[in-house]
């Protein structure tokens, strides 16, 4: 892709979205003193290679090498960038059947992912299979509502992590879907599922008040929304029931959003919810702009790989 075409495509985003109650006329990207870029994927499902030219639905799309080029170009544009994944890294191509996840983790490490959460399919080789591949992952796994204390993953998965980019503190935590009914018990063993909305309320408070984070991000493998089951935890429900979360990066439902959904949190303030489908076809990009008082706005888009 020609550089000018890439820049045009990757920065074609929605109008600035105000966060934290700031009024839009008081703030534009032009007067921002800090700029943080969040890149993200979800439900890649072991798709290492791009789809072929004859693929009926996604011809010439995806592929981890192309994603690597996009990510590097954006990092060159803005070094203050995080790369995150919302789970279901495993299962979907013969690469997983043969290598058991080793290749996926090694390649994500080459791309310098900063963190990922755990999806239900990441247990498809069992919790022991997931554990066996952890040495190949040079990034952290974050999950706050899976209690692994009686499993082999105890101490190997963190509830959250704080990153600092250009003096901005970014708190990232993870939540996952209920495994019962999706994953055989003998695969996830003694993993205990905790209510993700209650946990997200606790995590976002800790990151905002105790850790004093300027930006709070949730990596969610709950699913975007369930219109046929409105009580089922989802990304939109999570946003509605919490405060302090600026961005929810979702997975599980393979929802293709051209731009982030803007929804109100428990305090009536804007929260962004984004998900970029599946199979590495798209790369999500959210740009946050901070003024000297740490007020922030954001814009976002989905880039076709």
Description:
The chain is an alpha/beta fold and 305 residues long. The protein has one domain: Purple Acid Phosphatase, chain A, domain 2, CATH 3.60.21.10. The chain has eight helices and 15 strands. The strands form three sheets. Strands 1-15-14-2-3-4-5 form a seven-stranded mixed β-sheet, covered by helices on one side. It has a six-stranded mixed β-sheet with strand order 7-8-10-11-13-12, with helices on one face. Strands 6-9 form a two-stranded antiparallel ribbon. The N terminus is likely disordered.
CATH superfamily: Metallo-dependent phosphatases
Number of helices: 8
Low-confidence stretches: 1-14, 21-27
Q: Mean of residue pLDDT?
A: 92
CATH class: Alpha Beta
Percent in strands: 15-25%
Number of domains: 1
CATH topology: Purple Acid Phosphatase, chain A, domain 2
Q: Numbering strands along the chain, what is their spatial order in the largest sheet?
A: 1-15-14-2-3-4-5
Write the layout of secondary structure elements.
Layout lengths: L2 H8 L6 E3 L14 E8 L22 H14 L3 E5 L8 H6 L2 H9 L4 E2 L9 H8 L6 E2 L4 E2 L12 E6 L2 E9 L8 H4 L3 E2 L2 H15 L4 E7 L13 H7 L5 E3 L11 E4 L5 E5 L7 E9 L5 E9 L1
Parallel strand pairs: 2-3, 3-4, 4-5, 8-10, 10-11, 11-13
Antiparallel strand pairs: 1-15, 2-14, 6-9, 7-8, 12-13, 14-15
